[in-house]
């Protein structure tokens, strides 16, 4: 049987990864470079071109039918542009057009990174078999995506499901996005760490003041560290419950660095969820850790490319 092959790009502020991925979600070849995030837009595109160059040099490149891109956002899939917060050289940057040109005119699908991870978890991971799901990434920021009615729901611009910027504290801290009390402002890794330090937690001799260090302190019984995770869990629970109430999801999948804290996060999250997800149709909501790991962005970008190919085939294009 002929297996579809697509190219995938996962673009973030730290790294630009690329892969050739088959129709079963297997990565056959990968390439990666550091993102020159502080350079001008064309320099960043040069790094993307370098990754694509490694893929196009593969003997299997000729089989690639499409390209999928999962990018840090905001993205605008309808315009084919990206404006990643942490890549200042790209503002309304015509990434789809540039990638199409660099790959000999292949069809290109663009989605936000949260939506890409959602596509991966639904195709191959923890949300597999679920028709209505929310998948979240809790790390430096908080992103997410939705599966509704068995299909990825990226929305018109590719940003739907961006749960990090639901406000869960009306009079809360100002968020860099311009709103107040956003989930991200309370639950992201840097904000968990910041809150712990503000309330008197001190890093150990190694000076590590990351959320991972706060998690380790919480496991060791530090009440201030545990309280910072409990507050993050409460914010996540409120955001998840709001989403479930709005669109009826039955599973929430949580990945990203902060989810690696395990039960330090998940135990208070499940408890808090019973306080917020109270209506009969959301009471059965499951919360589980993500399964796809660091390749989720690439696998999800590939899923978007394959879906695009399917759509064109059905339309007879």
Summed up:
The protein has 317 residues and is an alpha/beta fold. The protein folds into two domains: 5-116 and 295-315, ATPase, nucleotide binding domain (Nucleotidyltransferase, domain 5, 2-Layer Sandwich); 128-290, 2-Layer Sandwich (Nucleotidyltransferase, domain 5). It has helices spanning 41-56, 95-102, 113-124, 183-187, 189-198, 211-219, 223-247, 263-276, 296-315; strands spanning 5-11, 15-22, 27-34, 64-71, 75-76, 81-82, 108-112, 133-138, 142-148, 151-152, 251-255, 286-289.
CATH superfamily of the largest domain: ATPase, nucleotide binding domain
CATH architecture of the largest domain: 2-Layer Sandwich
The count of β-strands is 12
Structural class: alpha/beta
Annotated CATH topology of the largest domain:
Nucleotidyltransferase, domain 5
Biggest sheet overview: 5 strands, mixed
3D shape: globular
Percent range for β-strand residues: 15-25%
GO molecular function: kinase activity
InterPro entries: ATPase_NBD (IPR043129), ROK (IPR000600), ROK_cs (IPR049874)
Keywords: Kinase, Transferase
Protein name: Sugar kinase
Question: Please, could you describe this protein's structure?
Answer:
Strand 1 (5-11) and strand 2 (15-22) form a beta hairpin. The protein starts with a strand and ends with a helix. With 317 residues, it is of the alpha/beta class. The strands form three sheets. The chain has a five-stranded mixed sheet. The longest helix has 25 residues, at 223-247. The protein is built from nine helices and twelve strands. The chain has two domains: 5-116 and 295-315, ATPase, nucleotide binding domain (Nucleotidyltransferase, domain 5); 128-290, Nucleotidyltransferase, domain 5, CATH 3.30.420. The protein is globular, with a radius of gyration of 20 Å. It has helices at 41-56, 95-102, 113-124, 183-187, 189-198, 211-219, 223-247, 263-276, 296-315; strands at 5-11, 15-22, 27-34, 64-71, 75-76, 81-82, 108-112, 133-138, 142-148, 151-152, 251-255, 286-289. Helix 5 crosses helix 6, helix 6 crosses helix 7 and helix 7 (223-247) packs across helix 8 (263-276).
């Amino acid at each position: 049987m002929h297996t579809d092959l697509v190219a995938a790009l996962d673009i973030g502020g730290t790294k630009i990864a690329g892969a050739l991925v088959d129709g079963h979600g297997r990565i056959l070849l990968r390439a990666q470079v550091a993102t020159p995030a502080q350079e001008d837009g064309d320099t960043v595109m040069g790094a993307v071109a370098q990754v694509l160059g490694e893929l196009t040099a593969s003997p299997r490149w000729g089989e690639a039918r499409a390209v999928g891109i999962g990018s840090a956002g905001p993205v605008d899939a309808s315009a084919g542009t990206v404006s990643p917060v942490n890549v200042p050289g790209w503002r309304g940057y015509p990434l789809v057009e540039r990638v199409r040109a660099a790959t000999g005119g292949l069809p290109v699908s663009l989605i936000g990174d949260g939506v890409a991870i959602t596509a991966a978890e639904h195709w191959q991971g923890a949300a597999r078999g679920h028709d209505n799901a929310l998948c979240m990434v809790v790390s430096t920021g908080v992103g997410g995506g939705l599966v509704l009615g068995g299909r990825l729901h990226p929305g018109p611009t590719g940003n739907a499901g961006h749960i990090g910027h639901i406000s869960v504290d009306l009079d809360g801290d100002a968020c860099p996005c311009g709103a107040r009390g956003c989930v991200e402002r309370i639950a992201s890794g840097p904000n968990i760490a910041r809150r712990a330090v503000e309330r008197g937690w001190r890093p150990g001799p190694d000076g590590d003041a990351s959320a991972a260090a706060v998690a380790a302190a919480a496991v060791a019984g530090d009440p201030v560290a545990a309280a910072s995770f409990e507050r993050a869990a409460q914010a996540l629970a409120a955001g998840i419950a709001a989403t479930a109430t709005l669109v009826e999801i039955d599973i929430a999948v949580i990945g990203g660095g902060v989810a690696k804290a395990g039960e330090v996060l998940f135990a208070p999250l499940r408890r808090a969820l019973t306080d917020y997800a109270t209506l009969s149709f959301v009471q059965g909501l499951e919360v589980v850790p993500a399964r796809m790991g660091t390749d989720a962005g690439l696998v999800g970008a590939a899923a978007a490319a394959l879906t695009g190919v399917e759509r064109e085939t059905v339309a007879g294009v």
